[in-house]
Amino acid sequence: MRFWFLCLCSILMSFSSLAQWYETQGQAFITNGNAQAARTLAMENALKKALLVAGASVSSVQQVVNGLLTQDDISIRASGSVNSFELVSETRQGKTITVQIRADIFPQEKQCFSSDYRKSLLLTRSNLLYREQANIGGIYDIETEVVRRLAAKINNEGHYLDAKLAIGKKSEFTRLNKTLQAERIKELTMSLSDITDTQYVMFSEIQDISFDREITNGWQFWQEDVYQRHFNINIYIYNGNSGEQVFYRQYRNIAPWAYTKRAQVSTTSHTFWTSEYGNIIDQTLNTMITDIDENMMCQPTRGKIIQVAGNKVRFNLGKKHGVKVGDEFSLLHSNNYISDSGKVYAGYNVSNYKVKVTSVSQESALAITPDEELLGNIQISDIAVRY
After folding, report:
1. Buried (b) or exposed (e) across 229-246, using 16+ Cβ within 10 A?
2. Closest CA to 20 of 87, 86, 106
3. Do the beta carbons of residue 231 and residue 273 sit within 8 Å?
4. Mind listing the pLDDT tens digit for each residue in 166-199?
5. Domains of the chain: total
6. pLDDT at position 46, please?
7. How far apart are CA 226 and CA 36, in angstroms?
8. pLDDT of 224-254, one tens digit each?
9. Domain boundary at 296, 330, 347, which?
10. Boundaries of domain holding 351
11. Are 38 and 95 members of one domain?
12. Are residues 151 and 274 in the same domain?
């Protein structure tokens, strides 16, 4: 009996020694005076951040009671589990609640090599589907500001992506998407990826910024009516090498519009982003970052070969993507083919070559074959990938 007790203690001590504490912060905006809902949302946001940093990603946090996690079973997309969870601090400033949480997480070995590297993602200008909805407030520049703000958040708060912007003008995506021209979307994606030297391309459509008909302060007859305003947005992410869609999601939210009907509002202003409507958009962007990180972490990080010489290759992944000296890559030949119906299908031929990185710059890496074997049939625009 004593022997089994000692064995059990040993196992528990060994298991707990693998656990690591992660302390993270989450924020949420109080909508319609519901502070408890905002508090719950802030804690869920903080826990998701902790899981992502630990190498796991949580797809749902379903039960929070009195600010403490009571559900042991959490749905984890990658790997890892939460042993314990506690609230460290909570502050409230205006209508924003900020919480600091500490989670005891058992991170396991990551299930994908790709999560070691940051993928380059091009964010294109969003398309406001019904421009007349922007008349009240004159918020036409929401098309660019939402994407600009999302890119900054991805680079500052995300873990697996390096965002670039292309918001000078609208792309043809919405027209092609509306007419179901999937092959033309593939061509557009691959073209933008090639021009901007990025691995993935994101398009977005702002579906709805209209007003609800129901007045939120109808009993206050001496004030101007305050209406709820929608913010609905769809995002689409495509693989730049193949043109195939890898992620799609819809987001729907609503918040009071605190401005008068004739007020002209700049979406670049601090006043707008601290308003209830600006805050609900910001909250939506935070959710988007978590979703994108979770779904992109195991997407392949593919580098395009930009130089070949003897037994050396240079490809467009570098320090900013997490590549280090000594990392090993396999080389692939792109082999997209077109069916009789005209559809383009992505394909890759895996070569026999493996290369090891010998030097890294910010945006590229130089690698050689370990046995100095000449890279006979490797060409520019072929692919380097870690498998």
Report:
1. bbbbbbbbbbbbbbbbee
2. 106
3. no
4. 999 899 999 999 999 999 999 999 999 999 989 9
5. 3
6. 80
7. 23
8. 567 899 999 999 999 998 888 999 999 999 9
9. 296
10. 302-385
11. yes
12. yes
